[in-house]
Design goal:
By secondary structure, the protein is mainly alpha-helical. It is about 70% helix and about 5% strand. The chain is built from 5 helices and 2 strands; from the N terminus they run ααβαβαα. The chain has a two-stranded antiparallel sheet with strand order 1-2. The longest helix is centred in the N-terminal third of the chain and has 35 residues, at about 10-45. It starts with a helix and ends with a helix.
Length: about 140
């Protein structure tokens, strides 16, 4: 069983998946920073300086806090502002991935458009062609 597990882990697909997950996690952090530190402040400035993350509806009695973090300590809240932020993060990530896939597809189309040089004929065929040409003379 241990040998089967080693063989499974050593397969290229598992390693590719592991690399993809690690890079995806790092990329997710970059997108989160882009959204939280750059885009959301601009959106907040355009719409009057508010922050989506502190928009919530109290679901329990006695929730009187003005920030989401403090409200969660007081009771249950419906954090729709946090959902809006996560949705914007997703849309940004989806847009970036779309642009990446579009770029890769255009590179592939360019590669496919360039015709390959025909492969030289095998040595036997080249010799037979040469003999044929000599016999014609």
């Amino acid at each position: 069983m241990l040998n089967e597990f080693k063989a499974f882990i050593a397969k290229g697909n598992v390693m590719d998946l592991a690399v993809g997950v690690i890079i995806g996690g790092a990329f997710g952090l970059i997108v989160k920073s882009l959204t939280d530190d750059i885009i959301m402040p601009i959106v907040g400035a355009i719409f009057g300086g508010f922050d989506f993350s502190n928009f919530f509806v109290p679901l329990a009695e006695g929730v009187s806090a003005t920030t989401l973090e403090a409200a969660r300590e007081q009771g249950a809240v419906l954090a729709y502002g946090n959902f809006i932020t996560v949705l914007i993060n997703f849309l940004i990530l989806a847009w970036i991935i779309f642009l990446m896939v579009k770029g890769v597809n255009s590179l592939r189309r360019k590669e496919e458009a360039v015709p390959d040089k025909p492969a030289p004929p095998p040595v036997e065929v080249a010799l037979l062609t040469e003999i044929r040409d000599l016999l014609k003379k």
